[in-house]
Specification:
about 450 residues; Rossmann fold; 2 domains
Amino acid sequence: MKTYINPKWLCVFVLSLFQNCSTLFNLPINSEKSSLGEITSYTTELKNLPQPKEKIVIGVYKFRDQTGQYKPSETGSNWSTAVPQGTTTILIKALEDSRWFLPIERENIANLLNERQIIRSTRQEYLKETDKSTQTLPPLLYAGILLEGGVISYDSNVMTGGIGARYFGIGASSQYRQDRITIYLRAVSTLNGEIMKTVYTSKTILSTSVNGNFFRYIDLERLLESEVGVTQNEPVQLAVTEAIEKAVKSLIVEGIRDGIWGKAVEDFTKYKSLIDNYNNEETINSGKVIGNKFPNNYRQKFALFADIEGQQIKGDYVNPNWNVGGKMGFKYFINDHLNLELNANILKLQNENIFTRTYIVSEINLEFMILPKYKLTPFIYAGGGTLSSKKSNLYKAQVGGGLEYLLDKNFALRISSQYDLGFKDTWDDFVNGKRKDQAIRIAFGVNFYIGKK
């Protein structure tokens, strides 16, 4: 007897599912009121800077997008620009927030001069009888420093990647894309045209998506399919704002350090902490490479490592048990990618109520680091080794791979798996079939790098 689902209850279930998913992923289901614009971390830092003795009058004629970059599109041409066109306004807002500068209108100076001319003409026409001194407009402020530069680069898909899996009609996946903008800002003296200081900042723009799906035949004529997902794109405007604010802060600090702000800065002691922090940031940044890479010397010439392993025999008996073992060893880096590894470890093989044996193992491996300059890198390795016990001495080969993540200059975490391939079928003292005895290991460990490149 077949059971049929009432369509009304199916609709209620589906609507409930979407409502719950909406809550789960925080998807907007109602319109939102307008609000004040978001601030970045550097907005707060600018507002909290120690103040100068007097503000510096500064002019900005043009700080524009110089990339000519259009938004990337997978469906065809897209004539929308990748970078907001109001970067001059963003820069002026950053200058105001810092409270170091007194920005004056220069981007639309023609509008300002026209309006002043209208005021002057109106006064001459209708105030002929009054004192001429009341008709004179005060002079415009002039800037001792001009700011120039702009957004000079927008690089799409600097890094892309993802991960996913599907089993028995149920799957999930995640993808990410990273773009990058670059900004240059320079201060120019209006007295002699000297370029007093140039700073350069960059900011990555991250886009991520998470998706899940279900695809399965309920019976011969019924197919059930469902999908759920969420995508999040970092706003380009906020990324540009953050990069510009960082550039303004860098300009202020480097100007204090190099003494270009003149009488605006007198007591350097109150800026000492600010300058020290900036110098430290420059030191750390000196080895930075695009794509979250680290300098060559972050992975040094030698490394000591230790692993804790889960081990299981793949032999001739049934009911193999998982056991805990350990491994310690030494690595010598031939070059950035390739290293030679020597290690010693304990391998315990056990089948429940049938067989137990512990081997002392020594191995030699050749390991290949796929992305040695990145903080997170996959690696693969292969080699040979010996197994020693009271009853026998055996030989084997092994292959493995995993991931390594650098926590700091010398310390890294590793997760890996290894497959041991025996040359004989006598690891468990039982010969059965053509397949040689094998073992699988899953390890978690640490690397400690020493020495210099």
